[in-house]
Please model this.
Amino acid sequence: MTAIYLDHNATTPLAPGVLEVMTRYLATDFGNPSSGHHFGAAPREAVAAARQQLAALLGAPADRIFFTGCGSEANTLAITGALMGRAGQVITQATEHPAVLQTCHALAPQGIRVTVLPVDADGLVNPTDLADALTDDTLLVSVMHANNETGTIQPIVELGALAHSAGALFHTDAAQTAGKIAFTVEQLGVDLLSVAGHKFGGPKGVGALYVREGVELSPVIRGGGQEGGLRSGTENVAGIAGIGAAAEYSAKTPRDQLAVLRNELQRLLVDALGDRVRLNGHPTFRLPNTLNVSIAGTVGAHLLAATPGLAASTGSACHDGSIGSPVLAAMGYGGERAAAAIRLSVGRPTSDADIREAARLLVSAVHTMG
Model:
């Protein structure tokens, strides 16, 4: 059956034109971009063009964009690359993506001390907590731009300024914000910023890291010296061309409708179910496409199982269905509220009719479940 897709935070369909661009470099212009002969020319030009396209979306110089195999690899390169061979403190926060949290903790044996900041009931880091945690040996602060489960947007500008005041680098995982909200790396004031292609209409298997001029990183993957020596290995030309095309599409396509659709979905659920619907995450500082709610008296996994015509999730796709949400636990939500949580994330292809039908399916399932 065809289901309504409201899981765009997990992955997005390819944006218009992306598949056509990718196919060219899988078939006709298949050469290695490092080759000096004719067959390497078009792929080399495609990588350069994609770098320009992604840089334009992020408001960054093109020569500061480095392609990776995914967003998690970009996070690993940012954190491990900045801390390799050093001892000191790294600070992150409790609702980070596992790619950040686990990478930070993996560096403990080399002398890295990991400090994990708490979040409040809306999922926000308190800048005062960061200020109190900074020490003379703080090397890096890594706080995600927006949470993948609740959509809560962190005060990155303020947090980054605090990190810089202590002489530390600042990294943000912007996988969920790139292409959804407007920003530039200069506006955020970050030193390092990660993105993932498949979160904004590009293909899976390609990501990128912005590295501010003057920031020195050690490579995680060594070899032939591709990507300025930071990420060796023959480039995934089709994927890189795809993330570039998706970035250009995202930069040119209005995104105002995302919040309209999300708000309408929330209104329909509240109108039908009243105060049984409880919002998880900040009511204002959140992604325009993301609605995370707990419906009292239900279990999120059971509710979604009872609505096969709706494709959504109970949380991050990285651990969906395996354990309770660490994000909601860090926000102080346990027991029934955490178990009832569902994440509904709209995208550019989502229609008004999709929203109305999704609400109808959920409300019907809730009433059936009692």
